[in-house]
Amino acid sequence: MRRVLLLLLLGFAAWRGYAHLTGAAPADAVEAAGPQWPSGAATVAGRQGLRPAGASFRCDGRTHCSQMRSRAEAEYFVRHCPDTKMDGDGDGEPCENDSRW
After folding, report:
1. Are the CB atoms for 34 and 73 separated by under 8 Å?
2. End-to-end CA distance of the chain, in Å?
3. Cα separation of 55 and 76, whole Å?
4. pTM for this model (two decimals)
5. What single DSSP character describes residue 93?
6. Per-residue pLDDT for 98 more than 70?
7. Which of 6, 7, 44, 94 satisfies CB 3.0 to 4.6 Å to 74 for a cystine?
8. 16 phi/psi in degrees, rounded to 5
9. Can you tell me the distance from the alpha carbon of 40 to that of 43, in angstroms, rounded to the nearest whole number?
10. How many domains would you assign to the chain?
11. Domain region containing 39
């Protein structure tokens, strides 16, 4: 019984360590990072370009296009957050090959 509990504890610790090292955000953290908005939603023009009205993005450790919910969010991350990996050619336009938007 002790071995089973020890193996479960070690497996959980390894899973959490892997998630931390790869920068994978838990689902609830991604939900809190910013609202998901439909393509016809109201937008406002600001210093960061078009973004959903009332949306507030914040740097939370996400670095890849697959972790973004919109192009506006990806643009915010590239401009304001360190160590992002979304603008491979350095032209300031993130996620150019992402077919979601």
Report:
1. yes
2. 51
3. 11
4. 0.47
5. -
6. yes
7. 94
8. -65, -40
9. 9
10. 1
11. 25-101
